[in-house]
Structures are given as structure tokens and as C-alpha cells.
């Protein structure tokens, strides 16, 4: 059994990864800006799932989420940065601010977690 922290698990790959990890007996702390989907797993995994609202673009928010996970689990064996923003528009149609936001979540968000 491992204590795992995942940023970005309210839906998609992160959600299904969390569900699979919980089914395998792990404890999982999920940090996400939205939590309505992942919270649906709480009744089944009450003792093994911690859900905390956190924003990967905010260092204080990430630090607070990690602090809560450590308070609950006492350690974190694995940290997974899964938060992401995808842009599917063509480059000429995508504003530079969109790329800044993508980098802030996808790249710098991972660095915030590592710190």
C-alpha cells in the first residue's frame, strides 16, 4: 500500500487512475480546482481518499494541499502531477495568453508540486 498524491484528478485519466489506485488498496490525496466528480468516490473509499480543492497555478494552494495530505497520511510515497490544459486550436488561432496559461498549469504546476 502506498500513499499517493495526485494533482488533477476530478475527471478523465486522473479520476480513473485514482479509482484504480484506491481499488488496489492505496491511499490517495487528490488536489484539484474542481472536486465534484472525485468526491463521488468518497462514500466507498472514506478512509483512503482525501479530496482537497487546490490550484496548481498557486504555490500557496499546492503547499496547503500537500500539508493536508501529510497531516492525513503522514507521508507521501508518490506524487503525480496530472493537472493540464490542452489547446486544440491551430497556432494562428491561439492567443499567446492561452499558451501562458498552458505553461503555468502543465509545466510550472509540476515544478510547484516538486518544490
Question: What percentage of the residues does DSSP assign to strands (E)?
Answer: 15-25%
Rounded mean pLDDT is 96
CATH-assigned homologous superfamily: NAD(P)-binding Rossmann-like Domain
Q: Please indicate the count of domains.
A: 1
- Helical fraction equals 40-55%
CATH structural fold name:
Rossmann fold
What is the CA-atom radius of gyration, in angstroms?
A: 15 Å
Strand order of the largest sheet: 3-2-1-4
Helix count, per DSSP? 3
Distance between the termini: 24 Å
What structural class is derived from the secondary structure elements? alpha/beta
The geometry reads as: globular
Question: What's the CATH architecture?
Answer: 3-Layer(aba) Sandwich
| Major β-sheet profile | 4 strands, parallel
List low-pLDDT spans: none
What is the CATH class designation?
Alpha Beta
Q: Report the strand count.
A: 4
Keywords:
115 residues; alpha/beta; Rossmann fold; four-stranded parallel beta sheet; 4 strands; 40% helix; 17% strand; globular
Give the topology.
Layout: E1 3-7, H1 12-23, E2 27-32, E3 49-53, H2 59-73, E4 78-81, H3 96-114
Amino acid at each position: 500500500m502506498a500513499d499517493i498524491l495526485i494533482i488533477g484528478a476530478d475527471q478523465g485519466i486522473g479520476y480513473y487512475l485514482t479509482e484504480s489506485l484506491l481499488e488496489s488498496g492505496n491511499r490517495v490525496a487528490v488536489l484539484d480546482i474542481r472536486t465534484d466528480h472525485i468526491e463521488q468516490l468518497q462514500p466507498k473509499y472514506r478512509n483512503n481518499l482525501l479530496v482537497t480543492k487546490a490550484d496548481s497555478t498557486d504555490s500557496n494552494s499546492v503547499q496547503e494541499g500537500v500539508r493536508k495530505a501529510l497531516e492525513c497520511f503522514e507521508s507521501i510515497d508518490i506524487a503525480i502531477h496530472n493537472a493540464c490544459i490542452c489547446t486544440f486550436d491551430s497556432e494562428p488561432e491561439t492567443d499567446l495568453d492561452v499558451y501562458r496559461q498552458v505553461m503555468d498549469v502543465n509545466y510550472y504546476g509540476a515544478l510547484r508540486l516538486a518544490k
